[in-house]
Amino acid sequence: MKEKQSGLQTAAAQAAKKQGNPLGELINKLYIFFDNKKNRYGAVLVVTAVLLYLPMVTSMYFMEVMTNIWFHVIVCLGLNIIVGFAGLLSLGYAAFFAVGAYTTGILILHYGVSFWLTLPVSVLMAVIAGLAIGGPTLRLRSDYLAIVTLGFGEITRLAARNMQITGRATGLVGIDRPALFGMALYKINHYYYAFFILAFLAIFISYRLQDSRLGRAWKCIREDEDAAEAMGINVVAVRLYAFIIGSVFGAIAGSFMAVKMTAISPESFLFTQSVMILLAVVLGGMGKIPGVILGAFAVVAFPEVFRGIGQYRMLIFGVVLLIIMIYRPQGLWPERDT
Amino acid sequence: MSFQEIFIQQLFNGLLLGSFYGLVALGYSMVYGIIKLLNFAHGDIYMVGGFCSLSLLAFFGRTFIGNGWLGIIAAMLITMIIVGMLGVIIERVAYKPLREAPRLSLLITALGVSMVLYNSVMVITGGEYRAYGTGLGYEGFAIGSVFITHTQAILIVAAVALMLILHLFITRTMYGKAMRAISMDRDCCRLMGVNVNKIIALTFFVGSTLAASAGMMAGVYYGSLHFFMGFVIGIKAFTAAVIGGIGIIPGAMLGGLLLGLLESFGTQIPFIGSEWKDVFSFSILILILIFKPTGLLGKKESERM
User: Fold this and answer.
1) How far separated are the first and last CA of chain A, in Å rounded?
2) How does pLDDT run across A189-222, given as a tens digit for each residue?
């Protein structure tokens, strides 16, 4: 192990020397630093401590943005399971968190159910939605799947817009805030911690999935479907798992979003929302968990930092998407194949 | 209105709607047939065509040409050329570098092109609806109590004429033959001395031209344009292409007309109001993809990923 590491170090150092550019050298040094497990866990601990301490020292606005980032981390990791791990292009991901948000919203508003009890229902609905969309379509060609998911996304939004129970175009307003051990959750800091914990869980589950038997099956299918099938992997079933797990991620994020915002409307689940999430996944590098987290940060933080861009935002995102696909299809922080 | 008159009215609406879908679906189908790319940006090409012709028409309105039929025909021809060139540029810049890349990358690139197109138009127009002013009157003829303007009738005739010209182009010319050959086996065509890149560019040109003309016709028919109008018609045209069998030229026309008719009659079914119109066509798409993914005129083929 030690030998291998030192070998890697010299190779990286040589590469840095050959390139002779300071940025490349820095990146190589960082790679070597984080190759050590102790250093890596140390860094994660430091970052976590800082993130937990943040609400004590920063403004409400900053907390709003950070909460939004955690929300995007969760949904991006969910979509990453579908697009990155399993290699299926889904263009209607917003529908999945619409399912979660509306389930929670309707149960609380119309039936007075406690928020925590709506979560299992929301998960169940997500599984049903994943099965309904994935079940019949996963046998199709990959590009047909893209347009079917797009169609389902629009159907979900239009149905929410036209049905009585979802409050038509105005949506659901005045959803009660939940309470935890008698403490009402109403401050932005509460939701910051809630989404932080969820994001942490999402990251943990993603890592566990990636290295599991299922994760290896996804990777195998993504690389070569025929070979995977020949090795005895049930392609449709394994893809269906990806769809269902991805949709559960989205639904839970959506449920929490519903009580954080206390109001949801069909306009929160537009096609552009699905595209934003896809952009974050592609930007960071499909299938690479730290890359996807980075992508989620970038997509949320960019319009906040550059306030002036306003309506140019989506145009810039489109151009970025094109440049990445043409010049760097593996994303900013790609998966390193070993 | 009596049942018969509703029938005629809906038949006419369906045919008109269907010919727009058909024109856009043709471009989808041609591009899919030749490079197996689902060109998400195609609906936005239609939208760009609408806006391009609107500005040309506004310009002609101030000159001696006017914005009557002469102006419309001139604007249409110039729009078709400009937007056709745009299609070629898109292919060169965005799709050509990725021709050997995995399908997923190509699909995401197409999505990026679509975003760039509709957001550019949004920035230029400020996201507002734009009125499509023409100098055409509202004269027409009546069938029973159903009134059809001359403009509407001419639009259908023009759409059908364009489809026929395309059909002749594909079946009777060398270029059409080259296109059909490339969709069968690209590498073999290269060995036989077909300039594959040129033919692919030509396919994008022709497809974009048709979409642009449909965009202009939609502008004349509805009287207004919006930057996001390409999105829904993009999905519907894809539906039309799939109904007929994607990659098959007459299939796209048939699928377009069929979808237009289904939609206009579908909204007459009780409990399915016009607000469910889009849900209705997306459901048709999903049902067809599930039960007959090869389409009405398609043959069964096994897929290579």
Assistant:
1) 15
2) 888 999 999 999 999 999 999 989 999 999 898 8
| B305 within domain boundaries | no
Domain-embedded: residue B304: no
In a domain, B119, yes or no: yes
Helix, strand, coil percentages (3-state) for chain A, rounded to 5, are 80, 0, 20
Please tell me which residue of chain B has the smallest CA distance to A136.
Answer: B290
For an interface test with B, the pick among A156, A223, A276, A315 (most B C-beta atoms closer than 10 Å) comes out as A315
Inter-residue long-range contacts of A234-239, CB under 8 Å, 24+ positions, other chains counted: A236/A138, A236/A139, A238/A86, A238/A214, A239/A86, A239/A88, A239/A134, A239/A138
State which residues form the domain around B174. 16-132+148-291
ipTM: 0.82
Residue B186 has pLDDT above 80, yes or no: yes
Render pLDDT for B130-185 as a digit per residue (tens, 0 to 9).
888 777 777 778 777 778 888 888 888 999 999 999 999 999 999 999 998 998 88
Report yes or no: B4 at the A interface, CB cutoff 8 Å.
Answer: no
- B7 in a domain, yes or no? no
For the question of whether the overall pTM of this predicted structure is more than 0.80, the answer is yes
The conformational region for residue B128 under phi > 0 = left, psi -120 to 50 = alpha, else beta, is beta
Q: Which domains does chain A have, with CATH numbers?
A: 36-327 (1.10.3470)
* Best residue of B282, B291, B294, B303 to probe chain A, by most A CBs closer than 10 Å: B282
Q: List the structure tokens of B182.
A: 């490339």
**CA–centroid distance for A217 within its chain:** 20
Residues of A in contact with B231 (CB under 8 A): 271
CATH number at residue B158: 1.10.3470
B264 pLDDT more than 90: no
Q: What is the rounded CA–CA span in Å between residue B288 and residue B29?
A: 16
State the smallest CA–CA distance between residue B28 and chain A in angstroms. 13
pLDDT at A59 exceeding the cut of 80: yes
Answer whether B282 sits within 8 Å of A144, measured CB to CB.
no
Q: How many domains does chain B have?
A: 1
Burial of A9 (0-12, 13-18, 19+ CB in 10 A): middle
Report CB contact under 8 Å: B275, A87: no
